[in-house]
Write a structure and sequence with these properties.
Elements lengths: L27 H23 L11 H29 L6 H18 L4 H26 L7 H19 L7 H32 L7 H20 L3 H20 L10 H24 L7 H25 L9 H23 L4 H28 L9
Length: 398
């Protein structure tokens, strides 16, 4: 069963089921919640420090900001998604209850320890979280013989390895530019969202809008293969001209890919257009990455097209969709969800394009984008706190 096979309507509670505390009933619940809260609070704190509104409390090196958004926020959502999806894919349980609470505690410990003079203790907690996550999905995948999704096991371990290498590089224990591990983490996330986006976005669109979408096997191979090629090219430090060529190929293949999914058919349907609009930011990221490697635009802009527009937008859209579906609620976006979707898209536009239009407003674009991001994920946290902590609306387990 695919993750997309979720309830379309909110039902009654068969057998007299009653609401109760259900935070530890399934992996998406606590991990979506802590990630959503952390996304809002940490970016708000970082923006305030960056703008000079307060001094202290957050590591000052911008690389730590990048680290926490990649290996903290985004990785937590990926693990929560996979804990839920793997249970559906394999019909075998992933961690719940005390085991799930212990895994989440590792993630929380890593975030807290980073605020004190214990960065290597934070690294140990982060790596333990990645290993526990790989075990949490690896056991059911292996037991079920689910080869199609087995690659997620080494992928989670790769996140843990990249995270550890980053910490060691920042402490100068490892002689390597820590920025290289930041890029590796970003490319791993890019690969994950490209794989999962390719599976669910066209299916959601076809099912909800009754339109014919297309997926061409050769185009899928080129689109995903080009991202992997970029990942290894960056890791190996290959010449910028080669990276520019790979990024250009990736841009064209992903633009063609989403065009076949008929994004124009989703206008007026927020639960769908947020996914399509966010996937378009992958195309923007890859195009800017090609231009940056060719020296035609300054470095850094392409990063925020990916992190704010694609990762932020797709995570927000998928968290809303799966949280509603897996708690027995209708797949309908209310006013708060629509506002959050709009805010994250505006945040991306401001962060990526305002500095191009008005270079003198670079600082203002960072602050405005960060505050818009904070509002978007703050709305998610407020709206979904009761949903994620209470039992399913239809009385079913999970």
């Amino acid at each position: 069963m695919a993750l997309a096979q979720i309830e379309e309507t909110e039902g009654t509670r068969p057998g007299g089921g009653t609401p109760g505390f259900a935070l530890w009933a399934l992996g998406f619940r606590p991990l979506y919640l802590v990630a959503g809260v952390y996304a809002a609070v940490s970016i708000c704190a970082w923006v305030a420090q960056f703008a000079g509104w307060h001094d202290g409390g957050w590591p000052r090196d911008p690389l730590w900001h990048a680290h926490e958004m990649i290996f903290g926020f985004a990785f937590a959502v990926i693990v929560g998604f996979l804990f839920t999806a793997v249970q559906n894919w394999t019909a075998r349980p992933t961690p719940t209850g005390a085991r799930l609470a212990a895994i989440v505690a590792l993630w929380v410990a890593a975030r807290v320890l980073l605020l004190g003079p214990w960065p290597l203790a934070s690294a140990a907690a982060d790596v333990a979280f990645a290993i526990a996550a790989a075990w949490g999905i690896g056991l059911p995948i292996t037991q079920a013989g689910n080869r199609r999704n087995a690659f997620f096991i080494p992928l989670l371990l790769a996140f843990g390895a990249a995270n550890l290498a980053f910490h060691l590089a920042m402490s100068e224990t490892l002689d390597m530019p820590p920025r290289r591990m930041v890029q590796l983490g970003l490319d791993l996330i890019l690969f994950v969202i490209a794989v999962m986006g390719g599976r669910v976005i066209p299916m959601f669109t076809a099912n909800a809008r009754q339109v014919r979408v297309r997926r061409l096997p050769w185009l899928e191979a080129v689109a995903l293969g080009s991202i992997l090629a970029l990942l290894f090219a960056g890791l190996a430090g290959l010449p910028p001209a080669l990276i520019a060529g790979l990024a250009a190929l990736a841009t064209l293949s992903h633009a063609a890919r989403i065009a076949l999914w008929r994004p124009w058919a989703t206008l007026g349907h927020p639960m769908l257009w947020i996914l399509h609009a966010s996937y378009v930011w992958i195309v923007v990221h890859l195009g800017l990455r090609a231009l940056a490697a060719a020296g035609l635009v300054g470095p850094g802009t392409e990063t925020h097209a990916l992190t704010v527009g694609a990762i932020g937008g797709l995570i927000l859209g998928m968290m809303v969709r799966t949280a509603r579906g897996h708690t027995g609620r209708p797949l309908v976006a209310g006013a708060m969800e629509i506002a959050a979707f709009a805010l994250i898209q505006i945040a991306a536009l401001v962060r990526v394009f305002l500095p191009f239009a008005a270079p003198s407003l670079a600082l203002e674009s960072i602050v405005a984008s960060g505050l818009l991001w904070t509002l978007a994920f703050g709305l998610f946290a407020v709206r979904y706190w009761p949903i994620l902590t209470r039992a399913r609306a239809d009385g079913r387990p999970g």
